[in-house]
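Work Package 4 report. The design task specified in the project plan requires that, given a folded chain encoded as structure tokens, an amino acid be chosen for each position. We show below one input record used in the internal validation round.
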């Protein structure tokens, strides 16, 4: 695949952040869009924006943090007579704080969204790509995919899964001309920060607000989108968008696991305590 022109791309979590930026970029590159997220209002507004520029968009509202949601989305796409050339599994969320501060059902929803639904959508949409002899999947991981991150314990673990799954699927499907790539952005100025802290303590919310106020918001969603989509066409097996973020991928290669854990643990403990 060397172009997005005339391809149909499904973007999950398309209502805000990186997913929204990718939808806009893909439309500008000539792709037809299938957008999904929980917010119909936000999806409809994005669809109107894209259509206003001549793009083609289909909207399916689905909460992928719910069991069975991947199958429901797949059935809606098929019922509309659509196929998917590029699947972009962007939907996800995390929590920032002590492991015991959050309820098990919150973690269950995170695992459902970040792991189970992502896996389901790969399993559901990839066979048609194989049959067609072309297609691809972009799974949005995180710089946390490479490291254990205390105080973002479950989130970093789910993102490690995303990277491992993507690399293994890439190998399995290489001869089918179906490419799989993981994109592992670092801190991004998106809705993720708000989501990560919405059930956290006031201390954590204040810390995130301080980081944003100091301009420490990392990369923009637009930059992450552009670098990710370009890397996919270049057939890279993973990318860490943004300047300086690649260090997270290399730390485990130069430090022992114990030192990596101390590095990330000390860094995040400092943030949670301030």
């Amino acid at each position: 695949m060397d172009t997005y022109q005339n391809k149909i791309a499904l973007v999950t979590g398309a209502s805000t952040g990186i997913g929204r930026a990718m939808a806009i970029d893909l439309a500008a590159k000539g792709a037809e869009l299938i957008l999904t997220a929980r917010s119909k209002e936000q999806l409809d507004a994005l669809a109107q924006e894209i259509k206003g520029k001549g793009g083609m968009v289909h909207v399916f509202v689905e909460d992928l943090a719910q069991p069975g949601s991947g199958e429901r989305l797949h059935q809606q796409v098929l019922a509309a007579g659509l196929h998917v050339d590029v699947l972009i599994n962007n939907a996800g969320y995390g929590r920032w704080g002590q492991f015991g501060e959050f309820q098990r059902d919150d973690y269950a929803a995170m695992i459902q969204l970040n792991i189970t639904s992502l896996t389901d959508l790969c399993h559901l949409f990839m066979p048609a790509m194989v049959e067609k002899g072309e297609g691809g999947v972009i799974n949005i991981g995180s710089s946390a995919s490479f490291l254990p991150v205390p105080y973002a314990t479950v989130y970093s673990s789910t993102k490690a899964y995303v990277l491992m799954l993507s690399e293994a699927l890439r190998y399995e499907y290489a001869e089918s001309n179906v490419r799989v790539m993981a994109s592992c952005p670092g801190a991004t100025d998106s809705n993720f920060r708000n989501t990560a802290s919405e059930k956290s303590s006031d201390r954590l919310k204040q810390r995130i607000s301080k980081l944003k106020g100091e301009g420490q918001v990392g990369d923009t969603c637009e930059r992450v989108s552009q670098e990710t989509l370009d890397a996919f066409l270049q057939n890279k097996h993973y990318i860490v968008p943004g300047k300086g973020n690649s260090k997270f991928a290399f730390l485990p290669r130069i430090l022992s696991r114990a030192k990596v854990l101390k590095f990330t643990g000390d860094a995040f403990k400092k943030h949670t305590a301030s």
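Residues 137 and 180 are 5 Å apart (CA to CA). Validation will be extended to a larger panel in the next phase.
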